[in-house]
Amino acid sequence: MESTALITDPYELTMAQSYIEHGKTGRAVFSLFVRRLPENRNFLVACGLETLMKSLENFKFGDDQLKYLKSLGIFKDWFLDYLRELELDLEFYVMDEGTIFFQNEPIVQVEGSLPKAQIIETLVMNIIHFETVIASKAVRSYLTAKGRTLVDFGLRRAHSFTGGLLGARASYVGGFNGTSNLQAGMMYGIPVFGTMAHSYVMIFDEEEEAFRAFAKSFPERVFLLIDTYDTVEGARKALKLLKDGIRVIGVRIDSGDIPELCREVRRIFDEEGFRDVKILVSGGVDEYDIDRWLSEGAPIDAFGVGTKLLTSSDAPYLDIAYKLVEYEGKPKFKESPGKKTFPYKRQVIRYYEKGKFSYDRVVKYEEGELIKKLSFPLPTLKEIREKVLHQLSQLPEELKTLKKVDYRVEVE
Amino acid sequence: MESTALITDPYELTMAQSYIEHGKTGRAVFSLFVRRLPENRNFLVACGLETLMKSLENFKFGDDQLKYLKSLGIFKDWFLDYLRELELDLEFYVMDEGTIFFQNEPIVQVEGSLPKAQIIETLVMNIIHFETVIASKAVRSYLTAKGRTLVDFGLRRAHSFTGGLLGARASYVGGFNGTSNLQAGMMYGIPVFGTMAHSYVMIFDEEEEAFRAFAKSFPERVFLLIDTYDTVEGARKALKLLKDGIRVIGVRIDSGDIPELCREVRRIFDEEGFRDVKILVSGGVDEYDIDRWLSEGAPIDAFGVGTKLLTSSDAPYLDIAYKLVEYEGKPKFKESPGKKTFPYKRQVIRYYEKGKFSYDRVVKYEEGELIKKLSFPLPTLKEIREKVLHQLSQLPEELKTLKKVDYRVEVE
Asked: What is the Cα–Cα distance from B55 to A160, expressed in whole angstroms?
């Protein structure tokens, strides 16, 4: 990874220079938290800590960065030297990745010399915000799909390829089974999955010819896209292959009246005893579709969820903030209308009733379960995903639906 | 930049292998176009071509990528060798970056050997889609701000840092004057801009002390954030600095009743003759706010537009597709419900009336103004931005508002 040092706002650096000039280099605590949950979210899933830690390792001001900063004519030479030598000896008090959290609960708290804790603000926000947005979106598909397979198909409409990569990671954390993003497969070991595009079907003179050609190329991976011309006809052609002894694993439907088509396609296969052929649905799918289609009894085995997942289209951002809460042991807070903050480093205490989350209290920092001083090694991606799924079993049922429910968080 | 070769879906590669196995390596044309404009967009601004070309230069399958692909057990060895030697000798028929376009108009058309034109699908879509989304969002702020300064403040909530970087580029194309993203400043030469955060004000015992400390550090860049405690009081403290001969360039207001506060703050400065002090407003601003505030007569000189710009929150994605339209000179199209495509490589002819866009026709390809074979060098970012601003002068007035108006596009 290239240097991440300029993934920041100029004001982080002007403030840092000025802090040093005025002797403000004491111990500060900054807190990253979400003020209010979006209207379409009952809970959030903390995500991005590993990405953040890797990015901070590359937070180095080298020649290119310093030459550019000097060219701006804003910074003093001694400050550029300070940046060149910068060591981020900061302490992080964090929720584990995969922790379910709510409003006003600190996800990441950064403690250390004021200029250093300030300088990383933009990077901390950028990374934790995005992966948290996506993990929190993905888990909604997980809850509505009730055990069906979920594959991230979002790379092509993700916001940049890094957005696609980190989004694949975050969707996996949020309960997805795989991705169509090969880079995510290589970098994170996430299972990859793919079928075929309409272009493949169109390049052959007949749809059936295309299906047979694909089966010849990949006899163990015959997953056929059947909606290029007529979905029901497409299913009948897939059936012909099955009757010829070709092992069609599944079919993909990307358009049309999904519940109706799925029922008809299912019947075509079932009538001939091919009950194992899977039906995968894609094409602008989100958790609202999944919920509606399954409640209508549509026989769907798997969903390719793409655009609306990786853009988190119904809640593309969080009201997240990285705020100074403590300096040299003294409380810090602001009073801007609608943007009040709470002072001090914090712990979150989660109360349970009959094994389910009951309510949370946010208290002055003490040792506890939810927020700990960061230590290495970090958990693996699989462990993070399992942590999410375990907590879902502790989540009150009403929070698991797509209907808005507020969870109680008391801030001391 | 690292290899971009795995920024793709597995199916691009399985299809490519199968195409070659079945002798389907003839000349194909794929077309990237938007089927329908989002409800909140009257026109779109093509963006991302330079980023795409740079990414394609790095579309190389090296040892890491090939080792990973081999580990999947899907691909034949001869195909992995093909990928290692892959040369993307493709032709691109494109709209210049910064071209205003509408539904069913091809932005990028890729012509060449079928497997090669197929393999780059995901990368083409990912890059052009995102930058087009952001440029098309940014230009709405440009149109409503009517000459006031616009700065991209979105990095912290952009979808990944690459999203922030490319988003800064695309906002500049869409008429923004600068960004708070230092990396974008370094890489693209976009003017950078920053003020101070609430933490800076909070770290001093008194707000006025903070203002004076900042002025001492950066006497030529005194831009003060005045809403940490009480905005009007904050303005009065800024006034004290002005009366002491400190050149306060401007103040930033990040919360509260914006039109009301701006009027009061303006009055405080104007009454004492400091008419040059700028008022910059930030905090969840978008074009709807800008339009409303300015129509209420709020005296605002500049806007910091962030979260809603770089997530394009009211239209975070486009109904964009990359479709096979021609193979070996023959037309290709599909008939999926709601997702029909038009065959052949295309040209767009724009008709004008009294110097304004009247309607467009999408015809079979012939030489023309809007779509040309890609040639180098590409225009500079400033030239692209100027192209956008020039076309805005040719855009019918009704298309420039935030009210939905449909532009006529005839497809032959």
From this structure: 12
